[in-house]
Specification:
Layout (H helix, E strand, L loop, with lengths): L4 H7 L30 E3 L4 E7 L4 E3 L2 E15 L4 E13 L2 E3 L2 E9 L4 E3 L2 E3 L1 E4 L4 E3 L2 E3 L20 H9 L16
Parallel strand pairs: 1-3, 2-4, 3-4, 4-5, 5-6, 5-7, 6-8, 7-9, 7-10, 8-11, 9-12
Amino acid sequence: MWKRKEDEEAEGGPVKPQSGFGGMPQGRSDSPRVTAPVGGPAHLGRSVMIKGELTGSEDLYVDGTLEGTIQLPGSNLTVGPNGRVRAGIHARGVIIEGKVDGDIEASERVELRKTAVLMGSIVTQRVVIEDGAYFKGGVDVKKAAPAPIQPRPETKHEPAPAASSAAAASGSASQAKAPVLEQKKS
């Protein structure tokens, strides 16, 4: 009824919805598809509960319950406000907004937001604890690994005699004579 005339002619008449499996229309669907975000962190929602060892090579956002160990050596871990983690954590960076019971080893940084509750020790280079966060444990701040020292290419500089450098500075070679060392024979 409200369809444009050009659309009806292109499709060969008015469009009638067809029911398929489960009452869903077949063919072209006007509803948007839900896809995982590209380049964002992996996300564990509130209703997800994991027991065991979790390893990965991408950033992870946990808003559910996780028990065991978490190994993300080159990635970041964020524990959301609803997250409950009972695990030993090894990651590049850790941000906590929820509750964590376990030791944390981060190669770069650990951040406890104001809603964070952490019971365990921290080993990292940098620590941020916001006002209001609860923390019971120890902190070991380690120095950053020094950058490897690059060997400098050796350049050989031969010292110039003092008289010849003075002559070069005055611009006249005839005025200055190089000192001559003579040895007397007896």
